[in-house]
């Protein structure tokens, strides 16, 4: 199973860069027919994770993927599943 991984630790405080990277990884997954994207916002205060979930919940983004899972064992990890 092909998987992409995006770690947001390095850019957690740069809002414009976060949006750009999220858009890039979603487009790449669609173009390459990747079935799973792992996004790592980290644990922290939870604000970055909320921001990522808000991004994923936008109507035009939601149309790209099948479902989102929050890792039950690791609070700082989100899985985005695609059905191509």
Q: How many domain regions?
A: 1
* Named CATH architecture: 2-Layer Sandwich
Q: Describe the strand arrangement of the main beta sheet, using strand numbers.
A: 1-2-4-3
Please give the share of residues in helix.
Answer: 25-40%
Oligomeric description of these chains: single chain
CATH top level class name: Alpha Beta
Concise description?
This protein has about 80 residues and is α+β, with helices and mostly antiparallel strands. It has helices at about 15-30, 45-55, 60, and strands at about 5, 35-40, 65-70, 80. A hairpin with a 7-residue loop joins strand 3 (about 65-70) and strand 4 (about 80).
Keyword list:
84 residues, 3 helices, Ribosomal Protein S8, Chain: A, domain 1, four-stranded mixed beta sheet, alpha+beta, 37% helix
């Amino acid at each position: 199973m092909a998987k992409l991984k995006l770690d947001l630790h390095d850019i957690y405080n740069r809002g414009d860069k976060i949006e750009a990277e999220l858009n890039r990884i979603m487009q790449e997954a669609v173009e390459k027919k990747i079935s799973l994207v792992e996004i790592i916002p980290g644990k922290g205060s939870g604000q970055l994770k909320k921001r990522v979930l808000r991004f994923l919940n936008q109507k035009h983004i939601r149309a790209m993927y099948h479902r989102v899972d929050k890792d039950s064992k690791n609070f700082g990890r989100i899985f985005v599943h695609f059905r191509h």
